Amino acid sequence: MLLEVAGLDLRYGATHAVKGVSLTVGEGEIVTVLGANGAGKSSLLKAIAGAEKPTGGTIQFNGRDITGRGASQRVRDGLVLVPEGRQIFVSLSVEENLLMGAYTRSGAEVARDAEEIFDRFPNLEARRHAPASVLSGGEQQMLAVGRALLARPKLMMLDEPSLGLSPIVVDQLFDLIAELNAQGLSILLVEQNTQMALEVASRGYVLELGALRAEGTAEELAADASLVEAYLGNAEDAA
Amino acid sequence: MLIVQQVLNGLMLGGIYVAVAVAFTLTIGILNFLNFTIPTLFMLAGMIGWSVSFYGLPFGMSEPLGWIPSLAIGILCAIVASLIVERFTYRYFKAKHGDATEHAIPLVSSLGFLLIFEYMILIAHGSDPRGFHTPFGDLNWRVAGLVISIPQVVGLIVSLAIVAGLSVLLARSKLGRALRATAEKPDTAVLMGVEVNRIVPIVFIMTGLLCGLAGALFAVNYGEVSPFMGEQVGTKAIAGMVLGGLGSVWGAVAGGLIVGLTETFSIYFFGATSAQVTIWGLLLVILLIRPKGLFGHNAIGKGKF
Amino acid sequence: QETLKLGHIVPRSGPLKGPGEPSIAAIDIAVEEINAAGGVNGKPLEIVRFDSASDPKQAALGARTLAKDEGVLAIIGPFSTGEAAVAFNVAEREKLVMMSNASSAPGLTDGKEWAWRITEDEGKQFTRLLETLEKMDIPRASAEIVYVSDERIANVVGTQLYPALLEAYGIPHGEPVAITYKSFDLAPQIAPVVQTDPDLVAVAGLPENAAKTIRELKRQGFDGRMIGSQVFSDPNILELFGDLAEGTTFMAGFHKDSSPEAAEFDARFIEATAEMGIRKLGAHHSDAQSYDAVHLFAKVMEEQGITGDPAKLEEERLAIREGLKDVTFSGVLGENLCFAGGDAELPGYVITIENGEWKLMDSHPADPCDDTAS
Amino acid sequence: MPDPILELDGVGKHFGGVVVLQDVSFHVARGARHALIGPNGAGKTTLFNVISGVFPPDEGTVKLNGRDLAGVPSRRRIAMGMARSFQNIRLMPHLSVVENVMLGQHARQGLLGQLKPVGLLPQARERRAALDLLDAFGLDAYPGQVVANLPYGIRKKIEVVRALMAEPELLLLDEPAAGLNPTETAALRDFLMEVSARGVTLLVVEHDMPFVNSLCEHVTVMNFGRLIYDGTAAGVREDEAVLEAYLGHRRKGATNAA
Amino acid sequence: MSGYLSGVIAILGINVIFAYGIFVTAAAGQLNLGGAGFQAIGAYGAAILSLEFGLGIWAAIAAATVIGGLIGFLIAFPILRTRGVYMVLATFAFAQVVVGIVLNSNYLGGSMGLIMSDYIETGAIIWATLGVILFVFYLMSTPMGLAMRAVHDDEPVADLMGVNNRAVQVAAFALGGAITGLSGALYAYYFGFVEVQYFNALLSIFVLLYVLIGGTQTAWGPLVGAGFFTLIPEALRMGEDWRFLIFGVLIVAMMILRPEGIVTRDAVDRIRARLSPRARDA
Ligand SMILES: Nc1ncnc2c1ncn2[C@@H]1O[C@H](COP(=O)(O)OP(=O)(O)OP(=O)(O)O)[C@@H](O)[C@H]1O
Ligand SMILES: Nc1ncnc2c1ncn2[C@@H]1O[C@H](COP(=O)(O)OP(=O)(O)OP(=O)(O)O)[C@@H](O)[C@H]1O
Ligand SMILES: CC(C)C[C@H](N)C(=O)O
Ligand SMILES: [Mg+2]
Ligand SMILES: [Mg+2]
């Protein structure tokens, strides 16, 4: 297993946001975490990334216990989080934001990889030297994803990457996820676009009020009527 | 002749302000942190330098030392103090939610340190100014009836050299980028792999070094140090920094020199107490016309809707 | 009540800490002497201190506290003109004697009943200096004035006394040049002063300011004489001025060689301050004045039969004031000294620095007290 | 179109050399549920900013209820009946949830109302109104909390509630469903249907096409700052230009146009 | 009441009022590092009105308050052109100029100060303090107070909510100027002396610290902050210079432990909830 989280617990003062969650992500796997607003998905990812200090449990990455490691060290280990809400650096230019993603790397490849991102997201190319603050919401999201890709991680955790992206770009994004996965990148994905998430993922977990409510293969989850009712919505309802 | 001499006096006085103004502008520009301990770092270098040259190292570790090693120790102490400030102010400053007064948090702790350092020195050495003696009889250069202070000229040149280096470093390098990112969103910078606790201290080391050097030059030049020298130079340096525009290193250079000249001529024409009105009045007027100073950049905004 | 309580308001921090704080040692020496000899009316003296931090308001607060809470019989201090000008109002309100030990601006006690001081007026002292200069025919064709504008006493002296007195002695002078207490770079102010090449530069400022002034004067090539009244006349200026001090001439209200008692006091004082961790080269006139103030109070209290009984506090405070009115006293300051109005009449010593030493150039006896002036 | 509430006529906007809006003209009918869609960077949010007065258009006019808004300061527009939410959540971080919502009432209170000590009166009408609206959105668990730490989806909803608190005639919503899961999205849609039934006109920017399709009867599509489609919701699924630029062909039968 | 206690209470009262003057602008997002300047205006206003124009105590205090407000109003326009740290330093510059003008004016006593002919006792200050506290609590409970806090958090959004940012900020400055002016007038009458050196940069810094350490989120902040700052040094009085050192350490510790100030909304809500479970949603 690439990532093994066991009994992870996270409290913010009185709020018990994550309650003893265990999950695994295998080498080359795409795993998704689903749940309602406030279920604790973002908190879980932040704890795995080291941005929040868990109050219990252990995290193993690449066969090594990283529970006590700092967030920046985990990036060096190859564990990267694309945080919720974009979090781009508005005081840096678009290009500088991308390069920040490659902070732990150096060499000529970085520039090449950056060009590749620009090729994929022409909107970014057009604003390359502009301050990132002028980007539209969706463009900022593209930038956030592109930035994470530049880290060349082993495991990428994406927190609602499709937020604010137009349908075409969502498609592109999920294609990209599949493509990267094919190249060996493992992915832990939190998505509100549950149908697409379950389409690309092989396995999934469902969180409710901080605790694991269900886990299984994507097909199992998609077929679970009670889950569909609570989180996944159903096609007729939406149509 | 008197006028020429006064222009020289103004530029040399401004030279002292420049180094401190640059230190201010660095921490504001890079870390968005108005670090009020900067004047005390300047003072620490001078006072500790004096103390070592007068009493020797503490706990009887040495006899009084010569002026060069004493000032070197003073500068070192300023750097260490600056690092202590980093440890207890900036490191605790996590911009959780952006709002108009957020820069107040480290600012307040830095004011706490201002009191701590100033009163530590006052407790140790009292409030009196102390003479600082160098072996040079006369540190002045007299040409054509003009008196020019050599340490001040050296100080100005050193400041300018450091400034030139810094401005290139910050605008272009990976370090500069990481620092700016950290200033804006420390939590996110960490997620990029930035070791915030390693790179932020670099800024504080530079700050300590700049202030320390300025403090040492001050001691040599005026042959005197005092626990209040920081306040004196600090407020004017702030004026210089604001005049130039926050975060603009060359702006701080220009601002520092403008303040020096303004002060000198204000004193010359209207008397000692007039400088306060002219310097700060000029600042207000300039802010009225250019709310971001002469060479200021746009401040970090919240981004778009 | 076991002891007779006197208040002492002293600047233990702020700009006046340097000259002001050592008065603690001077007062303690006197108290020790008196108590060792059996106290006053059989009771030991006790000093209750309050730190004014060189701040007039703190001095006033201290006066109020000492008067109301501590029930002191009288107060020594506050130290400086700035502090006294404000705190004296409290003395009037609370009705107890306040004896300032250093404030020397003219007119400070005028129209007040409870405000006293055991220092000599700067105007009188500077007049004595000018007299001596004239007597000794020291070059004085022209003068410039440099003063510290944000210290009350220096400001009064620099803007009012020096100009008037220099004129009275026929010495032309330029517009007084202000420096501020904390200015470090005096080049812009001093440049025009040196330009006129005066014989004398009269300085009004605390020792540190005087030190800076002389340093800048010399740097710019001044070769005349720096003079001053009492404001910077601290024995420590020898160290503070360094080798630039030579020839500086000024007034002091105390001189250790004026009497054997004075010399003994000076020596004990240096020891006592050293114990406090303060390095003094000798007693400042305000230290001698503080020392004598304690003895003076002891004398008056003895004469008035003060008991320190809290029930009689009000009347005993009044008795002390009445006792001061026609007292004469002797001490380290001089013999048979007295008060004219609220102000003590004290001698003045003209000091010049020669070969790195204080040298007595001339001395002026205390004026006699004129009973009609008040 | 009969009685449009909002009329845009030839609106243009550029930042420096970058043209962001170009000749945008369309109307929003009173009482309509109108969607504004388009690719990322098409200029939708910019158009919202122009309508709400964050910055003036460089060209063209914006009319609300027939009145030209040129020169009307942004803060007046909410009192004229237009309220909006924000794509990047902009709640007041130091205000509690209920205070954030009460801020929505600001424009409706006169100077005297501004001086009523609402905070000292636990039963004040202003507070009750805010609490009731929060209840209606299922947010009754949160009123006293500071918003900063709430989950994204919750904050997104509070934004909508705050805008509604202004009792607008025209409600501009910038991606209200972003960050909501399908079930919550459906609930939001139902709620907006109710709001619409009360006569409030909706202009919604949204990328969630099932949501758009089930809520709005009229759709305007932008690309590169220009209008490329303005018509019925049904028609947009057949429009080749829109498919090309925005929806994409591949999954058109599946998720996007469900 | 003992003399010492009444003295401390008077200073506390003056500081509390002063802090509220700064708080009112800080609550609306404007950090005023020019407190000393505004207080000097009140103090010198009262002094001149009483010494030169013979106004009675209360008339002079009221007039000084109005003058403070007026100057706050006028200076708001240029100062509000700047933002963030620039504004902090513009207010600082303003105070420096005010003090500089006093310093250079013989009419205002220059650096020698003015000695008042009348004085007030602690009781008067206590009443004034209570009045100001009640007023600010009232203000912060109104929609206007809410608007001020909204301006503090996010100006552009407040604007779109219909808040007239400019008016709120100018009003806050005027009100802050008036309250600060009041504190200055009381100061002048209580100490019987105004001297310009008192109104120095450190004073501006201190009063801002009262407010920021107390917390800008609720009207309790300045009360707690000014109380803490006035009383702790008194409690530490034995230590002389040490007390400021300890004080500095406390400031740093405070910011580490409670970066948003001693009193935050959360804290107030929690206390209130404990006191009356009914008002939990307040
Ligand atoms: N910094 C924080 N301090 C206090 N409570 C927090 C903090 N961050 C999150 N919480 C609380 O933890 C719980 C879980 O929040 P989290 O953001 O992880 O939910 P989520 O599943 O990501 O929701 P969403 O889908 O809306 O993003 C919520 O109740 C939230 O209020
Ligand atoms: N101040 C500015 N300077 C330069 N370009 C800008 C500025 N503001 C916006 N833009 C550009 O204008 C375009 C439109 O932005 P806008 O935010 O309106 O897009 P949008 O349609 O809302 O997109 P999204 O769906 O991604 O939110 C973007 O490409 C953006 O980069
Ligand atoms: C000791 C002196 C400097 C005090 C001075 N004589 C004064 O009146 O303030
Ligand atoms: Mg989340
Ligand atoms: Mg948008």
From TrEMBL, chain A:
The keyword Iron-sulfur does not apply. Keywords: Amino-acid transport, ATP-binding, Nucleotide-binding, Transport. InterPro entries: AAA+_ATPase, ABC_transporter-like_ATP-bd, ABC_transporter-like_CS, BCAA_Transport_ATP-bd_LivF, P-loop_NTPase. Residues 3-234 form the ABC transporter domain. Coiled coil: none annotated. Pfam families: ABC_tran. GO terms for molecular function: ATP binding; ATP hydrolysis activity; branched-chain amino acid transmembrane transporter activity. One of its GO terms (biological process) is L-amino acid transport. It comes from the Bacteria. The keyword Hydrolase does not apply. PANTHER family: HIGH-AFFINITY BRANCHED-CHAIN AMINO ACID TRANSPORT ATP-BINDING PROTEIN LIVF (PTHR43820:SF4). Belongs to the ABC transporter superfamily. This is ABC transporter ATP-binding protein. It comes from Rhodosalinus halophilus.
UniProtKB/TrEMBL annotation, chain B:
It is found in: Cell membrane. It is a multi-pass membrane protein. The keyword Transcription regulation does not apply. It holds the Pfam family BPD_transp_2. GO terms for molecular function: L-isoleucine transmembrane transporter activity; L-leucine transmembrane transporter activity; L-phenylalanine transmembrane transporter activity; L-valine transmembrane transporter activity. Its main location: membrane. One of its GO terms (biological process) is L-isoleucine import across plasma membrane. Keywords: Amino-acid transport, Cell inner membrane, Cell membrane, Membrane, Transmembrane, Transmembrane helix, Transport. The chain crosses the membrane at residues 12-34, 41-61, 67-85, 105-124, 144-170, 199-218, 238-260, 267-289. The keyword Transmembrane applies. InterPro entries: ABC_transp_permease, BCAA_transport_permease. One of its GO terms (cellular component) is plasma membrane. Belongs to the binding-protein-dependent transport system permease family. LivHM subfamily. This is Branched-chain amino acid ABC transporter permease.
TrEMBL record, chain D:
PROSITE patterns: ABC_TRANSPORTER_2 (PS50893). It holds the Pfam family BCA_ABC_TP_C. GO terms for molecular function: ATP binding; ATP hydrolysis activity. One of its GO terms (cellular component) is plasma membrane. The keyword Glycoprotein does not apply. Gene3D superfamilies: P-loop containing nucleotide triphosphate hydrolases. Residues 6-249 form the ABC transporter domain. This is ABC transporter ATP-binding protein. It comes from the Bacteria. Keywords: ATP-binding, Nucleotide-binding, Transport.
Automatic annotation (TrEMBL), chain E:
It is a multi-pass membrane protein. It is found in: Cell membrane. It comes from Rhodosalinus halophilus. CDD domains: TM_PBP1_LivM_like (cd06581). This is Branched-chain amino acid ABC transporter permease. The keyword Cell membrane applies. Its main location: membrane. It holds the Pfam family BPD_transp_2.
